[in-house]
Design brief:
6 helices, two-stranded antiparallel ribbon, 189 residues, Four Helix Bundle (Hemerythrin (Met), subunit A), DinB family protein, mainly alpha, flat, DinB/YfiT-like
Length: 189
């Protein structure tokens, strides 16, 4: 086990821009090219890019590294972030439905972070949960292109929900930057 005083050397895989995570030709995000047209497409593009960023920050790590906690007393880990965002996607989907809400994915409060243990089955389930919950929320919103439309029992505007989703992923990508740098020293946007 690595001690808190063991500091990995900082490094980047990028060679074109050393402050980037990957070289432009290898980066799947929308960092180059034509900008999105309109507010809805802009929000969707930012959401997609932040989702990809989180996945990129988790790539190439073993179960112990993905489950490694930041600093006590925090329970935050990269695996915990994957699970937390799956839970958040389920919550957002519940906000816009008129039916009964789906139950929490991970049970008790902080179950998303507390249950993030270094087991491959837990990791595989976290990725599957995240993909499924993202797809469900995306599908539920697909039929509502009017950003001012209010949805669900809470009558949340589509715009507010999309901005909230972008904000949540962006905030946690910042956490992922720090977590990844502490794990193996890799840096980059």
């Amino acid at each position: 086990m690595r001690r808190m005083t063991d500091q990995p050397a900082r490094w980047s895989q990028a060679s074109v821009y050393p402050d980037m995570w990957a070289d432009p030709d290898d980066d799947p995000r929308s960092s180059e090219g034509v900008s999105a047209e309109g507010e809805l497409e802009t929000l969707q593009t930012f959401l997609t890019d932040y989702r990809l960023t989180l996945r990129m920050k988790c790539e190439g790590l073993d179960p112990e590294q993905l489950a490694r906690r930041s600093v006590p007393p925090s329970t935050m880990s990269l695996l915990g972030l994957l699970r937390h965002l799956a839970e958040a996607e389920r919550d957002w989907h519940n906000w816009i439905t008129d039916g009964e809400p789906l139950p929490k994915l991970y049970g008790e409060p902080d179950g998303d972070f507390n249950g993030a243990v270094a087991e491959q089955a837990v990791i595989d389930a976290a990725y599957a949960d995240l993909e499924r919950e993202q797809a469900a929320t995306d599908a539920a919103l697909a039929g509502h292109p009017d950003l001012g439309e209010r949805l669900g029992k809470v009558e949340i505007p589509v715009r507010e929900l999309l901005v909230h989703r972008v904000e949540e992923y962006a905030r946690h990508c910042g956490h992922a930057d720090l977590l990844r740098e502490c794990i193996d020293g890799r840096v980059g946007q």
